[in-house]
Amino acid sequence: MGGVKVSSRGNQDLLRKGLNLAEALSDAAKEVGGTGGGHDIAAGAFIPVSQMNEFLKILDFKMASK
User: Fold this and answer.
1) Main-chain dihedrals φ then ψ at residue 12, nearest 5 degrees
2) Which residues neighbour 7 within 8 Å (Cβ) at sequence distance 6 or greater?
3) Measured between alpha carbons, how far is 62 from 52 in angstroms, rounded to an integer?
């Protein structure tokens, strides 16, 4: 079973709207058995490949609610 590396970058407009990529990626990764973190404007995660679709659903929900 392999893993997937995820990398994300934001911009100042998203930060002003309340987006924190480190928090979003970390929380979503933990929910699927992975790890994540970084900074509010740039973050990453490592997740099990079998959980990629679930991770994306969780992350999408977290980001859409901001």
Assistant:
1) -65, -35
2) 43, 44
3) 15
Residue 47 CB-density burial (10 A; 0-12 exposed, 13-18 middle, 19+ buried): buried
Rounded CA separation 32/10 (Å): 23
Contacts of 37 (CB under 8 A, 6+ apart): 22, 25, 26, 43, 44, 45
Mind listing the pLDDT tens digit of every residue in the chain (66 residues)? 689 999 999 999 999 999 999 999 999 999 999 999 999 999 999 999 999 999 999 999 988 876
Tell me, rounded to whole angstroms, the distance of Cα 24 from its chain centroid. 5
| Confidence (pTM) | 0.90
